[in-house]
Amino acid sequence: MKTEQSISVIREQVAQWHSAGESVGFVPTMGNLHAGHLALVQQARRFANRVVVSIFVNPLQFGLGEDLDNYPRTLQADIRQLESHGVDLLFAPTEDEIYPDGRDNVTAIDVPGLTSILEGAHRPGHFQGVATVVARLFNIVQPDVAVFGEKDFQQLAVIRRMVQEQGIPVEIYGAPTIREADGLAMSSRNGYLSPEERVLAPTLYQVLQFVSEGLHQGQGFAELESAAMSKLREAGFEPDYVSIRRAIDLAEPQAGESALIVLAAVYLGTTRLIDNLLINMV
Ligand code: PAF
User: Fold this and answer.
1) Residue 36 in contact with ligand 1 by CB distance below 6 A
2) pTM beyond cutoff 0.85
3) Does any ligand 1 atom lie closer than 6 A to the CB of residue 134?
4) Could you tell me if 200 and 243 lie in one domain?
5) Is there a single domain that holds both residue 23 and residue 147?
6) pLDDT of 69-78, one tens digit each?
7) Which of 36, 184, 229, 245 has the greatest CB tally within 10 Å of its CB?
8) What's the order of all strands across the beta sheet hosting 171-175?
9) 37 labelled catalytic
10) CA distance 104 to 83
């Protein structure tokens, strides 16, 4: 696996593959890789002849007081994992390569409607930062397909909408959330949890399952959301939201909807965790 920092080298390599008739799959990441990321790589390998991964801790998607400076940077360990999973090319650019005029002079991308709800309401600017860097990475790598985790379901929805609206010729695939044996969704942020918090953390997934069961028993959306918030508080979390939405576009659901999703964001101590569960009502 080659590791490159330069946009021109990445473009040249991908162009060579394309002219040889090979398709290119892309997995953008911020590094600190775990089994969830490696599952995205495996998906990309299924869909394309060549796999490119990027590691770039994107400052634009971190708000004030968020963990940009402390975000774990583990490049050497990440390289070893990617090599053992058959990745062809790693793009690990500097900030100057991605934002040559500085992070304050960037043509930003907004996806109206989707970037300001749920996570967007609690982390203003976050999804503009994500959409902006992903559009830029797509322009650089020019992949045929790109794979994102369903763990960040709203991010996936933002990217799908952006690609559709802007006519970006990249096919987007969502990959199911990878969980620890006790149900906790894998995330780089799990590393911040104390041993006591780590024991408590899987309760988040149990509460999402409680909401799913309630929906199948015919309970109302608002009633279940509020019961879930209470359960989380009682367990020791500080929930930001528990919200039942229409899976297709994250709009408020109507009764009788067939594809729902429950999304939640909580604080456990100082660590913010998100998770979601797709619910098929048919
Ligand atoms: O999901 C992530 O790791 C990031 O939001 C992404 C998609 C790599 C953009 O920085």
Assistant:
1) no
2) yes
3) yes
4) yes
5) yes
6) 989 999 999 9
7) 245
8) 2-4, 89-91, 50-55, 24-29, 145-149, 171-175
9) yes
10) 34
